[in-house]
Write a structure and sequence with these properties.
With 191 residues, the protein is α/β, with parallel strands linked by helices. It is built from seven helices and seven strands, in the order E-E-H-E-H-E-H-H-E-H-E-H-H-E. The strands form two sheets. Strands 4-5-3-6-7 form a five-stranded mixed β-sheet, with helices on both faces. A two-stranded antiparallel sheet has the order 1-2. Helix 3 packs across helix 4 and helix 6 runs antiparallel to helix 7. The longest helix has 18 residues.
Length: 191
C-alpha cells in the first residue's frame, strides 16, 4: 500500500517538491530506491554473450552518457588495460570488477546531470529484473539468435561462454523486452 510520496527525480539530484515530481510508493519501496533515478534515462541492456550489446550502445549512446559494462571494467583492472576475448578472465579480477560495477551503478543512477545511463547486465535474476522494472528503467534485450551467438563465441570469444549461452537460452524465465526502440540495423532486439 502506498503510504509515502516518492520523488521521481530525487530531491538530492535537484528534483522539486512539486506534485508532478511525486509518485505514490510504499515505505519499503521508497527506502529501497533511495535517491536513484526513475524512468527511461536508465537503460538496462540484456542478452546472451556475444550478442552485440556493447556495439548497440556504441551506436545509440551520446558522447556524455554513462556506460557501465562489466567487460570494460574487467579490462581496466588488468595491467595491460585490455582483455583478450578469447581468454578466460581470472576469477579474482572478475570479483573486483563486479564490485566496481555495483559501485558505478550506485553512483551513476544518482547523477544530477541529465544524461542517459547504459548498463549492460546480460542475465539479471528475476528479482533484479523486477527491481529494474519497478524503477521504470528501460529494458532492452539484444539477441541475434542462438546460431549467431554460438558462431561468435566459437570464432571470437573464450569457449567457456558457451556455458553462459546455455544458461541464457535454456533458462525457464525469458527476459521480456520493454523496448520501443527500433534498431537502425539488424541488432536482434527481442520485442
Amino acid at each position: 500500500m502506498a503510504t509515502t510520496k516518492d520523488h521521481i527525480i530525487p530531491y538530492a539530484a535537484g528534483g522539486s517538491d512539486q506534485l508532478e515530481n511525486f509518485r505514490p510508493a510504499c515505505q519499503p519501496c521508497n527506502s529501497k530506491r533511495q535517491d536513484r533515478k526513475v524512468g527511461g534515462q536508465v537503460r538496462i541492456i540484456t542478452g546472451p554473450p556475444a550478442a552485440g550489446k556493447a556495439a548497440y550502445i556504441q551506436e545509440h549512446a551520446y558522447p556524455h552518457d554513462v556506460v557501465i559494462d562489466l567487460d570494460r571494467l574487467t579490462a581496466a583492472l588488468t595491467v595491460a588495460g585490455t582483455v583478450d576475448p578469447a581468454l578466460r578472465v581470472p576469477d579474482h579480477i572478475k570479483h573486483v570488477a563486479i564490485g566496481a560495477r555495483k559501485a558505478a551503478i550506485g553512483r551513476a543512477t544518482r547523477l544530477r546531470e541529465n544524461v542517459s545511463i547504459w548498463i549492460i547486465h546480460a542475465m539479471p535474476s528475476p528479482d533484479q529484473l523486477q527491481e529494474y522494472k519497478s524503477m521504470g528503467w528501460q529494458i532492452i534485450t539484444i539477441d541475434p539468435g542462438e546460431r549467431i551467438v554460438r558462431e561468435r563465441i566459437a570464432n571470437e570469444r573464450d569457449s567457456s561462454l558457451h556455458h553462459a549461452a546455455d544458461r541464457y537460452y535454456h533458462a525457464s524465465q525469458t527476459i521480456e523486452s520493454q523496448s520501443s526502440v527500433q534498431p537502425s540495423r539488424d541488432w536482434g532486439i527481442a520485442q
